[in-house]
């Protein structure tokens, strides 16, 4: 039986929510191994005038504990 753990990570990008999600997984993988999945819990953005300047995601990352 595998033991799984979930952590919550906040990440951002100037490009897109998809890129922000990739950044979350990339940063988490620096200290967490055996990542199994990423669940996008929430998406927000920063607006300046009529432009979106930053995309933000709240990601739940699931990984296997050895």
Automatic annotation (TrEMBL):
Tell me where on the tree of life, at the top rank, the source sits. Bacteria
Question: Which InterPro entries is this protein grouped with?
Answer: Dodecin, Dodecin-like, Dodecin-like_sf
| Organism of this sequence | Aequorivita iocasae
The name this protein goes by in its record: Dodecin domain-containing protein
């Amino acid at each position: 039986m595998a033991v799984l753990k979930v952590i919550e990570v906040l990440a951002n990008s100037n490009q897109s929510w998809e890129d922000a999600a990739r950044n979350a997984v990339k940063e988490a993988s620096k200290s967490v191994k055996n990542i199994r999945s990423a669940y996008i819990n929430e998406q927000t953005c920063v607006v300046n005038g009529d432009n979106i300047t930053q995309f933000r995601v709240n990601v739940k990352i699931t990984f296997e504990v050895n």
